Request: fold
Amino acid sequence: MKPTVRSITSDMVAEQRSLDLIVAGLNDEQWSLPTPSPRWAVRDQIAHLAFFDEHAAVSINEPEAFAEHRNDFIQRVSGSVGAAEEVQFERTRLMSPSQLLEHWRSQRDRLAEAATKCTDSDRIEWYGPSMGARSFLTARLMETWAHGRDVCDAVGADPEPTDRLRHIAQLGYITRRWTYLNRGLRVPEGDVRVDLESPSGDAWTWGPPDAESQVQGKALDFCLVTAQRRNVADTALTIEGSAAHDWLNKAQLFAGPPSDPPPAQKR
Reply:
């Protein structure tokens, strides 16, 4: 069944609550632990989520106000290394861990409430091109999961994967072309077949079954690789064909400038 705004929102909220259970049990020192993202501590990961959850809600509720914020944000961060972080964290770096946690909770609640106003056909303004409501909310779910993995790596948590990963696996598959275009590279010819085992044991598949290049394995591994949270060499994925090998060594399911996966055995 095709995901709807309602089903994606439900999964997004569940993913946020799952991360909340982890960070709510941390002491103040653990909130300051470094994460795999350079210069970012645990608290910065949560502040990042709070910032974009807040402005996602504004975009849905007040598109004109969001457009003003977007113009100001782009102007402030243009041409300055680290400026985007300063803008995101300028309020939250003054907060205690408990205050930051409550701030994130309030912003994600605003987003969940705003999402109830969306229909499957709506388009939402964002920092780049506008997005369909389903894609927009899937991106918020993915961000929570991906940055949550950074937090988990920092504090030694190992959350049980869930079938919410299907949203991220789908995103990982459909952004193969984006991975190359974002790097200014020609998209290789040919398709890639992806066969994954979901956390519940179901089979998730994308691409033609007779494709010369194939990827098989656990959905969690595929999501970690395409979200650049693991090097493909550190997973149990089975990969056949040059197109699949090349893709998974570059895969980037998120927007933004091109970036590379972590080195093997880095995490």
The chain has a mean pLDDT of 96. The first strand starts at residue 123 and ends at 124. The chain is about 50% helix and 10% strand. Strands lie at 123-124, 131-132, 192-197, 203-206, 213-218, 238-240.
